[in-house]
Write a structure and sequence with these properties.
CATH architecture of the domain at 1-138: 2-Layer Sandwich
Structural class: alpha+beta
CATH topology of the domain at 1-138: Phosphorylase Kinase, domain 1
Order of helices and strands: HEEEHEEHHHHHEEEEHHHHH
Bound molecules: adenosine-5'-diphosphate, magnesium ion
Largest sheet: 5 strands, antiparallel
Strand order of the largest sheet: 1-2-3-5-4
Distance between the termini: 40 Å
Radius of gyration: 21 Å
Strand content: 5-15%
Length: about 400
């Protein structure tokens, strides 16, 4: 059994990671009770020495139990996050500078890191243990906030996400083409997929799926109508192993939904966007994140036609960004991108079908990492799920059938 990770940070912890003196500091929970789904996030407000500078930070700490009550591969998770903040973020800023990207176009979507450690006293050197931590800018303090995870994003927000996601993922294709040595030695190793423990014996996923389709969701029109297809798709997806395919293969985020994107505003206009939570990255298809996002994180007002336009927008931004770095966009045709979408969509269907239950769970009764038994019940019990959830499931199934993904 792993040791219990710390749930708070001391002055020594902060000084070690910030590499300066700390005059005073306070810590508090960064997320509201029950809204931490996979990690422990603390808000740290500190006054630093010698110049009495005040900083507001977000600290990401390890949890050694996930929602299912299992031990997540937290060493790999923390390593991936640290690499993103300490190696990949600087690399994508540097390559933009080298190519003369003007300031107003600079893609700067990763929060700034103020310090990190793999373990107490470990700096950035492996191995990672339960005392690993990352200190990054607290985006909330500069006005960034999440969209509503139950409602999902309207078209304006979704377009903004798609534009930034496309350029962000194109950035790693640029590194692959322009800096192959760096890509091989530094990018690819951070994207290796950790080995997951197999599900514990006795967990009957077929039984759960059967209950979900015949009881909990049977009243949703598209589920009632297409139960056999959904069942087959969900079962097949368990065997699906994402494979990188060239030329599109790039950094796949793999948890790309509402709560991992923050927006800032000038008045009502969106002024900035940041992406967070890189603990599950892999080397995969950009289409996986796009499809997952479109069905998990857009509001019901965003239609199927809008999703087609957003897919085209993604492709235009992706290839447009490649062109800025003098990369030949011809191998990245729209037809080839639609084949990527087709290859990834069935597994994304299964993932979103499953995850919408968590994403849409009532804020009065959110999934609680300290209560895996309640989480297990949530998988088939409809308590805490409103009409929006059932409508989103209906929309997902209808479009998946219409697009022949399932
Ligand atoms: N740098 C940050 N600034 C502000 N809020 C943050 C920051 N990082 C994380 N959060 C908040 O904490 C939540 C959980 O963080 P995240 O890194 O996504 O961890 P998890 O693995 O639990 O999903 C986010 O949804 C967001 O609300
Ligand atoms: Mg998250």
């Amino acid at each position: 059994m792993p040791a219990e990770p710390p749930t708070d940070l001391t002055k020594e912890d902060l000084e070690e990671m910030l590499q300066c003196g700390v005059e005073s500091f306070t810590t508090s929970p960064l997320t509201t009770a029950g809204e931490n789904f996979g990690s422990l996030l603390l808000r740290v407000d500190a006054t630093l020495l010698p110049d009495h500078r005040q900083v507001s930070l977000a600290a990401k700490l390890v949890v050694t139990k996930n929602l299912m009550g299992r031990v997540p591969p937290f060493r790999d998770f923390m390593r991936k996050e640290m690499d993103m903040y300490t190696r990949l973020r600087p690399a994508i800023l540097a390559v933009q500078e080298e190519h003369g990207i003007p300031r107003d176009l600079l893609l700067d979507v990763i929060p700034r890191c103020h310090g990190a450690r793999t373990r107490r006293g470990g700096g950035l050197e492996p191995p990672v243990d339960e005392t690993a931590a990352i200190l990054m800018e607290n985006l909330g303090a500069s006005g960034y906030r999440l969209a509503d995870r139950i409602e999902g994003m309207d078209l304006e927000h979704a377009e903004c996400v798609v534009r930034h996601l496309a350029r962000f993922q194109a950035m790693f294709v640029v590194l692959k083409l322009k800096k192959p040595h760096f890509f091989k030695s530094t990018v690819l190793p951070t994207l290796a997929v950790p080995k997951h423990d197999p599900p514990p014996p006795g967990e009957d996923r077929d039984e759960k799926l059967h209950t979900l389709l015949t009881t909990s969701l049977a009243h949703v029109p598209a589920v009632g109508q297409h139960r056999a297809r959904i069942h087959a798709a969900m079962t097949a997806a368990r065997q699906f192993r994402a494979r990188p395919r060239e030329p599109f293969a790039t950094l796949a985020h793999n948890d790309f939904w509402t709560n991992n994107v923050l927006f800032s505003y000038e008045g009502k206009r969106i002024a900035g966007l940041k992406l967070i939570d890189f603990q599950m990255t892999s080397y995969g298809s950009p289409a996986a994140d796009l499809v997952g996002f479109l069905y998990s994180s857009t509001s019901l007002a965003v239609t199927g036609e809008d999703r087609d336009r957003l897919t085209r927008l993604y492709h235009e931004e992706f290839t447009g960004w490649l062109r800025r770095f003098d990369c030949d966009p011809r191998p990245f045709s729209y037809a080839a991108f639609l084949r990527e979408v087709g290859a990834e969509a069935p597994a994304q269907f299964a993932r979103v079908f499953h995850m919408l239950r968590i994403f849409c769970m009532s804020k009065d009764n959110p999934p609680d990492i300290n209560n895996p038994a309640a989480f297990q019940r949530m998988q088939t019990d409809n308590t805490g799920l409103g009409e929006t959830y059932f409508s989103k499931i209906d929309r997902l199934v209808r479009e998946a059938v219409q697009r022949k993904w399932i």
